[in-house]
TrEMBL record:
It comes from Ferrimicrobium acidiphilum. NCBIfam families: oligo_HPY. InterPro entries: AAA+_ATPase, ABC_Ni/Peptide_Import, ABC_transporter-like_ATP-bd, ABC_transporter-like_CS, Oligopep_ABC_C, P-loop_NTPase. Pfam families: ABC_tran (PF00005), oligo_HPY (PF08352). The lineage of its organism: Bacteria, Bacillati, Actinomycetota, Acidimicrobiia, Acidimicrobiales. Belongs to the ABC transporter superfamily. One of its GO terms (molecular function) is ATP binding. It is found in: Cell membrane. It is a peripheral membrane protein. Keywords: ATP-binding, Cell membrane, Membrane, Nucleotide-binding, Transport. This is ABC transporter ATP-binding protein. PROSITE patterns: ABC_TRANSPORTER_1, ABC_TRANSPORTER_2. The keyword Ion transport does not apply. Residues 4-249 form the ABC transporter domain.
Length: 322
């Protein structure tokens, strides 16, 4: 059943168009990955869903959570949804945790506001949540301030806060990028385990295809403010059709080769993502694409149903001639 439906969303900040025609949906309890290079618009997409866009943002289109339209929703109603039905985990927990408040109290506050729990009951539940996310001495650790915890522990606190009120969906924006690789894997496992335990959908944002492929059942690739390809994880990693997705796969496989010490030249994607507001007319991947033609000066349309691609000359299509 569809939980979140984003349709034809365009977003501009100060008149600069940063997200173009964003459309996707997430089903109840589904795990969707959103990947793309820095500046492709991943965080803005999540902030648009959370209603946390910067000043001077204008949004058009529709974002529906079950039957509720979120575009244009007033702040009073939005703040009731945040934490309760939609929760977000940010890349750097120090920016979202209150440095002056003990972590047990911070988690408890979410429960007091949204669930109406008393102070002692919310604190007890916060301590139980800390235990669930892997703190070995939760009663003691609940009294810690954020700066007394490691990066991995802080991110566990964020996960505890995110799931505290059993939200319908958690948006996790690069939740492990600041952590070392072993802690990264533990935190991602915990996130996947807890969201499925709570029947909660997950949108995992990352620039790392391998991270997303390990956790998500469906992946969307974003480039230049638009989704260029969307498919199941297996389909996308084995039969990518968009030239940009194929280049991303080649670079991550190149890294695997490095691990196997059988490497030659590490593959790279030539050029850089255009600056916001300086996208070329037509397809935003023009100038970096090996399959570009005159037709690409016109914006490509999305084709496919379960496997969607936004490209005039995708790999595997009949126009490829191979
Ligand atoms: N507050 C803002 N004002 C103006 N432009 C912004 C603002 N926030 C983001 N942008 C621009 O919007 C584009 C998309 O930014 P966004 O943060 O969504 O990228 P991202 O895909 O999350 O990148 P990263 O992987 O680096 O986190 C970028 O070009 C960025 O410079
Ligand atoms: S539309 Fe054209 S430029 Fe864009 S990705 Fe497809 S082939 Fe490349
Ligand atoms: Mg980001």
């Amino acid at each position: 059943m569809t939980l979140l439906e984003v349709r034809n969303v365009h977003l501009a900040i100060g008149g600069v168009e940063l997200i173009r025609d964003l459309s996707f949906s997430i089903d109840t309890a589904q795990r969707l990955g959103l990947i793309g290079e820095s500046g492709s618009g991943k965080s803005l997409a999540a902030l648009a869903i959370m209603g946390l866009l910067p000043y001077r943002s204008t949004v058009s289109g529709s974002i529906r959570l079950s039957d509720q339209e979120l575009v244009g929703l007033d702040e009073r109603r939005y703040s009731k949804l945040r934490g309760d039905r939609i929760a977000m985990i940010f890349q750097e927990p120090m920016t979202s945790l209150n440095p002056l408040m003990r972590i047990g109290k911070q988690i408890g506050e979410v429960l007091r506001i949204h669930e109406g729990l008393s102070r002692p009951a919310s604190y007890a539940q916060a301590t139980a949540l800390l235990e669930r996310v892997g703190f070995d001495q939760p009663a003691q650790q609940a009294r810690a301030f954020p700066h007394q915890l490691s990066g991995g522990q802080r991110q566990r606190v964020m996960i505890a806060m995110a799931i505290a009120c059993n939200p319908d969906i958690v948006l996790a924006d690069e939740p492990t990028t600041a952590l070392d690789v072993t802690v990264q894997a533990q935190v991602l496992d915990l996130l996947a385990e807890l969201t499925s335990e709570h029947g909660c959908a997950l949108m995992l944002i990352s620039h790392d295809l391998a991270v997303v492929a390990n956790v998500c059942d469906h992946i969307q690739v974003m480039y230049g403010g638009a989704i260029v390809e969307s498919a199941t994880t297996s389909e996308l990693t084995h039969f990518a059709e968009h030239p940009y997705t194929r280049a991303l796969l080649a670079t991550s496989r190149g890294l695997d080769d490095l691990d196997n010490e059988s490497f030659g030249q590490l593959p790279t994607i030539a050029g850089t993502v255009p600056q916001a507001g300086q996208f070329p007319p037509g397809c935003t991947y023009r100038g970096r694409c090996e399959r570009e033609s005159y037709q690409c000066q016109t914006p490509p349309v999305v084709t496919g149903t379960t496997h969607q691609v936004r490209c005039w000359h995708p790999y595997g299509s009949s126009s490829e001639g191979a």
